[in-house]
Write a structure and sequence with these properties.
32% of the residues lie in helices and 27% in strands. It is of the alpha/beta class. The strands form six sheets. Strands 17, 18, 19, 20 and 21 form a five-stranded mixed sheet that branches. A four-stranded mixed sheet has the order 22-23-1-24. A four-stranded mixed sheet has the order 2-14-16-15. Helix 6 links the parallel strand 9 and strand 10. It binds uridine-diphosphate-2(N-acetylglucosaminyl) butyric acid. The site of uridine-diphosphate-2(N-acetylglucosaminyl) butyric acid has 27 residues, from helix 1, helix 5, helix 6 and helix 12.
Length: 419
């Protein structure tokens, strides 16, 4: 267990280099078991969610070699064993082993995945997709058994453009007999990154990044080299921070197109930005203007940046309204921001209001999930005095080297291990 200690109120300047995308890497690593040869994935972030996936790979008997940001996975000798709850529950993305193992072995047994408590988080759309392809799904006390004598291509229309269901169905369909078409598919950058990885191994996937993805099943996948796309949520988190207390802060190794919805919100708020091919330079303005946020699937405003931007909105003049349309329980950070001096109110599960600007003061607060933690890091860096963030392990699930990256731009921040 860790807590984070921040001495806030300091201007930040210099470069922050963005790491590989968490939500892409957590799909690419399980996808590697589809291949019975060694695959190499580069730009893998060093975060605890990846360590949890490595634990599952090791448990299944894969050979995993890691050197800096490069991970080599050889799944040629894996055994298709039941994945126990104590390892599946460490992260949400363990559910990608469902699609990957089903595709390779036509059978998978695992417990329901864990993850941050930001809503009910059902997986009915994933299962509906597997069933449409001829799989039989049974659930007993949270243990899912999915089998298929003949996994066959199918037409699958998703009721909601779910990221997880789109990727999981893609994984299952890669080696199925015939063609699968996913309509109303998710379009997030990590969907494209996963499809490219699978195609690099010899899969036949087209349309990733649009709402219709076509997968023609193949018999064999081969060894390949692949790179994780830059993390647009990490990018956005540092852009938000720079908009509050940055002076010439440059966020590098990014794809600006992926954060277009955030760029337009920050422009509305009056943040001056210089946007390059793979970097954005930001200085905080004297005065921030209010704005309203509505979270949507990509390319709309990402739910994963809703909590981080809430911290910035406490510094904006006027009343900002947040409408969270993806998750039912994503305002717990607001209670903590109020402890620090913010004026926020949660009106319903999906609507909250923030009135600013407020002078934030360092306090003892608690991270309730990953992005709530990011929200508190931003607030703690803005605030005068000392902030202690309990449950900081949530933050380490998704932000690589956050202490080093922030220290390099002038923050006073440290991590303390507690019992
Ligand atoms: N949904 C269903 N049924 C399903 C799947 C989803 O009803 O079978 C609903 C969910 O309840 C939710 C909505 O659809 O209301 C969106 O869920 P989605 O499946 O898109 O989310 P996810 O795959 O579980 C991923 C990220 C989340 C991110 C969302 C939305 C991973 C491991 N997680 O979750 O990331 O918020 O997409 O972009 O990729 C985070 O990084 O902090 C995080 C929570």
């Amino acid at each position: 267990m860790h807590r984070m200690i921040i001495e806030g109120g300091r201007e930040l300047s210099g470069e922050v280099r963005i790491s590989g995308s968490k939500n892409s890497a957590v799909a690419l690593v399980p996808a590697a078991v589809l291949c019975d040869e060694e695959v190499t994935i580069a730009n893998v972030p060093n975060i605890s969610d990846i360590k949890a996936l490595e634990e599952i790979l090791n448990y299944l008997g894969a050979k995993v070699e890691k050197q800096k940001d490069i991970i080599k996975i050889d799944s040629s000798k894996i055994e298709n064993k039941l994945i126990p709850e104590k390892i599946s529950k460490k992260l949400r993305a363990s559910y990608y082993f469902m699609g990957a193992l089903l595709s390779r072995f036509k059978k998978v047994e695992m417990y329901f995945p864990g993850g941050c408590s930001i809503g009910a988080r059902p997986i009915n759309l994933h299962l509906k997709g597997f069933e449409a392809m001829g799989a039989k799904v049974t659930e007993n006390d949270n243990l899912f058994t999915i089998t298929a004598d003949n996994l066959k291509g199918a037409k699958i229309n998703l009721d909601f453009a779910s990221v997880g269901a789109t990727i999981n169905i893609m994984l299952a369909a890669v080696k199925a007999n015939g063609t699968t078409v996913i309509s109303n598919a998710a379009k997030e950058p990590h969907i494209v990154n996963v499809a490219t990885f699978l195609n690099n191994m010899g899969a036949k996937i087209s349309g990733a990044g649009t709402s219709e993805i076509k997968i023609i099943g193949v018999k064999h996948l081969h060894s390949c080299f692949h790179e994780v796309v830059p993390d647009y949520i990490e990018t956005g988190t540092y852009m938000i921070l720079a908009s509050a207390i940055g002076k010439d802060m440059t966020i590098t190794n990014i794809i600006p197109d992926h954060v277009e919805s955030l760029i337009s919100k920050l422009e509305e708020m009056g943040v001056p930005m210089q946007i390059g091919i793979d970097f954005i330079r930001i200085s905080a303005p004297q005065k921030l203007k209010q704005t309203n946020i509505k979270t949507q699937v990509y390319p709309g405003f990402p739910t994963d940046l809703q909590q981080p931007i809430a911290a910035l909105l406490t510094q904006a003049s006027g009343k900002s309204i947040i409408n969270e349309t993806i998750w039912e329980n994503r305002f717990l950070n607001l209670l903590e921001l109020n402890k620090m001096g913010a004026t926020t109110e949660t009106l319903t599960n999906s609507k909250a209001v923030i009135i600013g600007p407020s002078k934030l003061k360092g306090k003892k607060v608690k991270a309730t999930d990953l992005r709530a933690g990011a929200s508190l890091v931003i607030a703690g860096l803005i605030a005068e005095g000392k902030t202690i963030i309990e449950n900081a392990d949530y933050i380490l699930r998704g932000y690589e080297n956050i202490i080093e990256k922030l220290t390099n731009v002038g923050a006073k921040i440290s991590l303390e291990e507690i019992e």
